[in-house]
User: Which sequence fits this backbone?
C-alpha cells in the first residue's frame, strides 16, 4: 500500500517504515516542516518525499493521521477528506489530558476513521464513542544486548523534563537525591538549574543520537522511569531491550509492560528508592534483572508483531472505507 503520513514521532516512524509498505511524506512547507529531513541523505528505501501535485495525480491508498491538523492538510493538499474520500487511520499516541476518565476523543463517533491506540490503557481511558478502535502496542527495533552497568548511576531519559514536570515525574527526582542521575534528552540541560541547590547529583549527560544514547544508557547500572501520565515511553522499552534493570513508577501501562522481576515497579516512591539502592549496590542482581527486562521487552514489543498488527489495521481500514464510502 501507499501510505501518506507525517514524521511526528521519529522513533515511531522508524518502526513503521521497517515494514513492507511505501510511505509518502509531503515536501516541507514554507516553515520547513514536513518531508524527510530527519533522515538526511539516507532515507529508508520505502520512504518517499512527494509534492501535493503528485498526490493529487496519484492519491495514496491510505492516510495515517497523528495530529488533528493533518485532516485539514489532507483536504488542502489532496483535496480529499480522510475517512470519506480516502481511507484513514488516526494514530492516538497520548493519554487524555482533561476530564479523565470522561474525555471524549475528537474523532469519537467518526465511523470512517479507525482509531489506533498505542496502549490498552489509552483505549480504556479515551471515550471513542462508536468509532472503530484497535490497540497496536509499540514496536521497537532491537538495539542489542549492550548492558555493562559499569557506572553505578541512574539513566533518566526524558525530552523537555522541565516543561513537562509532573507529567514525566521530574518533580520526583529529589526523592532520589542519594544517587547519581544522568539525564538525557531534549532540553534536559535545563534540569539541574530547575531542581536547584542540593540536587547537584543530577547531571545533564547529553541529547544524543540513538546509537550513542543506547551505548551511554547501557553503561549506567539502572534505568529510572518516573512518568505519571503519559503513554508508554519508547525509551523505557529501549532500556529493557538493552538489558537494563528498570525502576518504574507503576502508572498507566507500566504494569503490563514491566515484570516486577525486571527491576522494581511501585507507586510508593520509598519502595523504588530502596530497590534502586539495592540494584546499584549489587551489579550481579542488576544484570540478572536486566536480562529479565530484555526478554519481556523482546516478547511484547518486537518489530515482527508490531508490523503484523499494522498490516491487519491497514486491511481493516480498507474494509471500513468500503462500508462508509
Assistant:
Amino acid at each position: 500500500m501507499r501510505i501518506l503520513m507525517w514524521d511526528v514521532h521519529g522513533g515511531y516512524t522508524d518502526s513503521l517504515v521497517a515494514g513492507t509498505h511505501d510511505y509518502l511524506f509531503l515536501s516541507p512547507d514554507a516553515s520547513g516542516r514536513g518531508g524527510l529531513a530527519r533522515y538526511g541523505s539516507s532515507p529508508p528505501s520505502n520512504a518517499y518525499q512527494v509534492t501535493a501535485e503528485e498526490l493529487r495525480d496519484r492519491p495514496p491508498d491510505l492516510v495515517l493521521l497523528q495530529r488533528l491538523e493533518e485532516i485539514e492538510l489532507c483536504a488542502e493538499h489532496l483535496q480529499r477528506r480522510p475517512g470519506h474520500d480516502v481511507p484513514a487511520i488516526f494514530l492516538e499516541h497520548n493519554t487524555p489530558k482533561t476530564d479523565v476518565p470522561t474525555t471524549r476523543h475528537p474523532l469519537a463517533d467518526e465511523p470512517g476513521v479507525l482509531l489506533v491506540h498505542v496502549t490498552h490503557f489509552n483505549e480504556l481511558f479515551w471515550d471513542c464513542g462508536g468509532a472503530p478502535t484497535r490497540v497496536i502496542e509499540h514496536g521497537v527495533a532491537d538495539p542489542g544486548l549492550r548492558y555493562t552497568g559499569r557506572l553505578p548511576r541512574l539513566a533518566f531519559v526524558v525530552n523537555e523534563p522541565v516543561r513537562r514536570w509532573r507529567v514525566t515525574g521530574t518533580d520526583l527526582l529529589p526523592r532520589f537525591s542519594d544517587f547519581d542521575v544522568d539525564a538525557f534528552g531534549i532540553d534536559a540541560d535545563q534540569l539541574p538549574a530547575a531542581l536547584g541547590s542540593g540536587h547537584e547529583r543530577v547531571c545533564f549527560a547529553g541529547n544524543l543520537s540513538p546509537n550513542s544514547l543506547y551505548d551511554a544508557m547501557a553503561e549506567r547500572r539502572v534505568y529510572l522511569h518516573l512518568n505519571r501520565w503519559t503513554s508508554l515511553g519508547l525509551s523505557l522499552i529501549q532500556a529493557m531491550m538493552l538489558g537494563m534493570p528498570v525502576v518504574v513508577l507503576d502508572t498507566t501501562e507500566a504494569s503490563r509492560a514491566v515484570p516486577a522481576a525486571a527491576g522494581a515497579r511501585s507507586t510508593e516512591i520509598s519502595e523504588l528508592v530502596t530497590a534502586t539502592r539495592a540494584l546499584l549496590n549489587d551489579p550481579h542482581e542488576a544484570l540478572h534483572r536486566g536480562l529479565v527486562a530484555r526478554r519481556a521487552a523482546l516478547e511484547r514489543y518486537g518489530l515482527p508483531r508490531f508490523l503484523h498488527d499494522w498490516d491487519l489495521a491497514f486491511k481493516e481500514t480498507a474494509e471500513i472505507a468500503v462500508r462508509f464510502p
Summary: The chain has two domains: 2-139+303-323, 151-301. The chain has a mean pLDDT of 93. The chain is about 35% helix and 20% strand. The longest helix spans residues 303-323.
